[in-house]
Amino acid sequence: MNNLIKDSLTKLKRENINNPELELRILLKHASKKNNEIFLSNLNLDNINIVKFKSYLQKRINREPIAKIINSKSFWKNDFYVNNFVLDPRPETELIIEEALNIYRNKKLKLKILDIGTGSGCIAISLAKEFKNASITAIDISKEALEVAGKNLKIHNCYNQIQLKMIDFKYINSKFDLIVSNPPYLTNGQYNNLDPEVKNFEPKLALVGGDDGLKFYREYSNNINKLLNKSSYFICEIGINQRQDCEEIFENSGLYLNKSVNDLQGIERILSFSKI
Ligand code: GLN
């Protein structure tokens, strides 16, 4: 194995980075002048832009997540542009899409959908691709996040289905068939204990939901009932051990919990509500 590769692996391992070989291959691929598969054992360094590679490696050693370095993260069936102003789409959030598909079996439905706190736009765009006749309002209070979502709308050619708006949820007043959200739900304490990859490179605005993490669910519950029809659904992501609190919060606003979905670690992660 080439010395540059050996040294790079040693550096990544020293930082206790999981899957150092895999990450190294991704960084090399991103710095590659060709679109070949990267094999660490017999790599032709002539095909690699070494200056670029070294800068990516240094970023990773500084604990910048891979997705932020390569400005791309896969979610559901597509790749999304990401930067420091949005959360990297996470696999557990894909369960929101899965749940929407469980509820609405007919993909041709003309659903009216609201995505609160759209961030990169990954939920809204994935739903738009699944439900080709849906019209989606995707809102956020972060101008920078909306710029990222706008870029993803362009990449995925979703302008005809998705409208982006910089607006606070409390000012929304039309009816929707489906409301989805992955709100900030970490407590301040949890935030302080996050890995540097998340804490130093992802927006706090998208992570922390007040002292107990439940701030946004409370805000939603004040307003959400009047935005839903009798047969509408609300699907949201929650943090660890928040199911019971969320169930109570939304019960007080006339919604009942249909289903709670566990993520791959067995944590209750996605709740789907409808009107009582
Ligand atoms: N699951 C994310 C994390 O733990 C938090 C996402 C969120 O607050 N919506 O990093």
Q: Which structural class is indicated by helix and strand composition?
A: alpha/beta
Q: SSE string, helix = H, strand = E?
A: HHHHEEHEHEHEEHHHEHEE
Q: Quote the average pLDDT.
A: 96
Beta-strand residue percentage:
15-25%
- Low-confidence parts: none
Strand order in the largest sheet = 5-4-3-6-7-9-8
Number of domains: 2
The value of Rg in angstroms is 20 Å
Large-scale geometry: elongated
Helix fraction, binned, reads 25-40%
Distance N terminus to C terminus? 63 Å
CATH class descriptor name of the largest domain: Alpha Beta
Q: Which sheet architecture does the biggest sheet show?
A: 7 strands, mixed
How many extended strands? 9
Could you say what the CATH topology of the largest domain is called? Rossmann fold
Cofactors, ions and other ligands in the entry: glutamine
Provide a descriptive summary of the structure in words:
The chain has two domains: 3-62, no CATH class; 73-275, Rossmann fold, CATH 3.40.50. 36% of the residues lie in helices and 20% in strands. The chain has helices at 3-14, 20-30, 50-61, 66-70, 94-103, 122-130, 143-155, 188-192, 196-199, 215-223, 243-251, and strands spanning 73-75, 78-80, 112-116, 135-140, 162-166, 176-181, 228-237, 255-262, 268-275. The longest helix is centred in the middle third of the chain and has 13 residues, at 143-155. It has a seven-stranded mixed sheet with strand order 5-4-3-6-7-9-8, with helices on both faces. Strands 1-2 form a two-stranded antiparallel ribbon. By secondary structure, the chain is of the alpha/beta class. The termini are far apart. The protein contains eleven helices and nine strands. Glutamine binds next to loops.
